[in-house]
Design a protein that fits this description.
Length: 423
């Protein structure tokens, strides 16, 4: 956690010229930055959108902008200034000196939110790893407390170990330890996935921009009580629950962390274990906030993260064929009938329940699409095989006579192979 309290007052500043390829409106990005800050209890007392002609290596902003903002921060008694951009260690230090308050960049803010929200051992490990990777880049020689030296051994010549070297070494050792623990977590998660495959139930993973309503939809579909709040990153740790589809078929629904634009690279790497649930899913349910003015841009951000997983080898390139889009929050637009989603998407309101039946039917159809039709002739007294087919397949025809039971059933390929192997 970075050193601020819940009762501290913060400022959100947005530089809208730092990414030429970023067409998102500056005001919308400012609103998102305010939402991020407010989600951990900061009181926003001043905001500003700052045009940048060029990035200053020393302060990011121009001298006039730094001075004007410094006066505004002093007037409002700001103790934390949030710059919705990436700051180098030198830029952060110089702005803190100029403004006489703590300065946090976008990465530091998101890391702090994640640190507060992580509830499980795995989540805590991932957040600590990301935080240490970030802090390691903040170690600069110009920090006065890092100028001390520790004494070297008598048989070694030259100065002893400097404080900055000691800090780097300690952080590096902790990072190695955390990666080792997280690797064990990934192995355990892999074993759990293997166990689920033996059942086997199809996996449906919810993905989407933060605050798109994934957890609310998760609760509405499964009857669970996952924390669902109108705030960014309300869910960090993956949650799974059973789901019954209209055909009676069972599935597992997985709720995952929300995505956000400019997600810190430290977090993309640290949360790979969480995103592996998406990679292993049979269906990726992309939940979008249809009522958000920048729904299309948010969709692009989610797609960019998934494409990044493809480049990392975590996700297969065919993921779009397994994806079903959900246009959520239709109630804010006058109902499902008023929503005009992309082709193939399903409009719903997780709050009112409108459209959920259609969504479940669409999921059922997606899951059953690869099913194969097979016919089996079973002895009259073979109740075990008959019960297995009813439990794992969809019996569409049955004829009993004096000599045998003839069954026509639709099965997933893996279930058909399993049935013929077992019986």
């Amino acid at each position: 956690m970075l050193p601020w309290g819940r009762d501290e007052r913060g400022d959100a500043a947005r530089g809208n010229g730092h990414r030429p390829d970023q067409h998102r409106a500056a005001e919308a990005r400012l609103a998102e930055a305010v939402g991020l800050a407010a989600s951990i209890g900061l009181v926003i007392v001043h905001t500003a959108v700052l045009p940048l002609r060029q990035r200053r290596p020393s302060t990011l902003l121009g001298e006039g902008q730094v001075a004007a903002l410094g006066a505004a921060l002093a007037e409002h008694g700001v103790t934390v200034a949030i710059v919705d951009s990436a700051l180098s260690p030198v830029q952060q230090r110089n702005l803190e000196r100029a403004w006489q308050c703590k300065v946090i960049d976008r990465t530091g803010l998101i890391l702090d939110i994640f640190g507060e929200r992580a509830a499980t051992r795995e989540g805590s490990l991932q957040v600590e790893l990301a935080h240490l990777e970030y802090q390691r880049s903040r170690l600069v020689r110009s920090w006065t407390h890092l100028e001390r030296q520790r004494g070297g051994f008598g048989f070694l010549g030259g100065p002893g170990e400097t404080q900055i070297e000691a800090d780097r070494r300690l952080i590096g050792e902790r990072i190695v330890s955390l990666k080792r623990e997280l690797e064990q977590v990934r192995r355990t998660r892999g074993l759990h996935r293997t166990a689920r495959r033996r059942v086997p139930y199809p996996i449906i993973a919810l993905v989407g921009y933060t605050n798109a309503g994934k957890s609310t939809l998760f609760n509405a579909l499964t009857g669970a009580s996952v924390v669902a709040q109108d705030q960014l990153f309300a869910t960090l740790d993956p949650t799974m629950r059973g789901l019954t589809l209209p055909s009676g078929r069972k599935a597992i629904l997985s709720d995952t962390v929300g995505f956000v634009s400019d997600l810190p690279t430290e977090l993309v790497a640290a949360f790979r274990a969480t995103l592996e649930e998406v990679a292993q899913a049979d269906i990726i349910l992309h939940v979008r906030d249809a009522a958000h003015p920048e729904s299309a841009e948010q969709r692009a951000d989610v797609v960019a993260v998934l494409e990044g997983m493809v480049r990392d080898g975590t996700l297969d390139a065919a993921w779009p064929t397994r994806t079903l889009e959900v246009a959520n929050k239709a109630d804010l637009l006058g109902g499902v009938a008023k929503v005009a989603p992309r082709q193939g998407a399903v409009a719903v309101s997780a709050i009112t329940g409108e459209g959920l039946d259609t969504l479940l039917e669409a999921l059922d159809a997606r899951i059953s699409a690869p099913m194969e039709t097979a016919e089996y002739q079973l002895p009259l007294d073979d109740g075990a095989r008959l019960a297995w087919l009813y439990r794992h397949g969809e019996v569409i025809g049955r004829h009993d006579d004096d000599s045998a039971i003839r069954v026509t059933v639709r099965l997933m390929p893996v279930d058909r192979a399993r049935f013929e192997r077992l019986f």
